[in-house]
Amino acid sequence: MTTTSTSPTSDTPQSSEGTVRLGIIGTGTQGSAYAHFISQGLVPHMSLGAFADTDPAALAAISEKHPGVPTFATHQELIGSGLVDAVITTIPHYQHPDVAIAAIEAGIPTIVEKPAAVHTTQVKRLNEVAAAHPEVPFAIMFNQRNNPLYQQIKQIVDAGEIGEVLRSTWIITTWWRPQGYYEQSAWRATWGGEGGGVLVNQAPHQLDLWQWICGVPKKVFAKAGFGFRRDIAVEDEVTALVDYGDGRTGTFITCTHDLSGTDRLEILGTQGKIVVEGSKTATVKRYSRPEKEISDESTPESARALMSGNGASLEDVVTTEVIEDTSAWGAQHSGVLENFAQHVLGQAELIAPGSDGIHGVRLANAIHLSAWTGREVPIDFDEAEYLAELNKRIEAEGEYPTQS
After folding, report:
1. How far apart are CA 210 and CA 319, in angstroms?
2. Looking at residue 9, what is its pLDDT?
3. Which CATH class is domain 20-141+332-353?
4. Which of 211, 214, 268, 395 is least crowded, fewest Cβ atoms below 10 Å from its Cβ?
5. Where are the domains of the chain?
6. Contact 116/141 with Cβ under 8 angstroms?
7. d(CA 300, CA 283)
């Protein structure tokens, strides 16, 4: 994407053929990390265009690390500066939609940090604007979709190599956060400031991958602990059971108080099984034919032999493949940025289209609503009821405006 800068100075980043100048809106942890990736050349088709942050101290800090990159006090100034070819929103969750909408309506390609927002009403509004401007690239930072391991697992499942998915279980408790983490900022772990706990802050990537690979469930029943092991208002412990219909189920377990942590995903199919450990190693079992056929063809004698290991064994009908991910930390994030840049340049399809952001938000909302009400809720839940329950909690905090 080649653009013409307006009256550039010696300090103004110049657009060049084949390079997208990125405006980073929000220069906290994530914004700073993306600036680092780009400055280190980890995103070949992207350069730093400008920074925006409402906190002068944050702007001063980012300018010290990246001298010469223009800074702005508001996202509106950055969007209208003519100094950027695209933007990324690395700001508090509730703010993503409004800022992204402003950029898209200005014709600026936009990538939003996860989650796309806190509740589906917000995301629907964002998606509607994006759909009205199909010429403007729109993506979301689902960096784990760029993890080669999960890409291969999705290909295996989509190709039917393990048959139809019957059950999936993800235990993702590697999010240990001490009390001091929550005390860094007043908005953290609040309903009005952050919109939730582990489901909206730490686990959105897994919620996205789970439905991306295994499909979108029909119903959710959840138990959650709100301030269970931390002095916070939001959830730090979650167990969710989802129903895909026809007896197919899934379980999602996460928390922020497991000091040693577990990251284990199991996907059981009618003709195989996948077990992922630590998001680094996947063991794929493929059956010679569907498990039900193996069962139906057995006789009492062959069943005894199969289970005892006398004669025929399970190894005769099961093959095993081990897949390892050796990509470096940060490669997934920088890879999504590079994919976005190439998409803006017309050279690639998006790994994570922005419109996909609603799926993980909807699932997190359904889990919250079920835990709040104590009942099973459909994935297409009553959004008015959800907002009413959320606003009760925001009002109780007495610090933030309610949502609509």
Report:
1. 24
2. 37
3. alpha beta
4. 395
5. 20-141+332-353, 145-325+358-397
6. no
7. 30
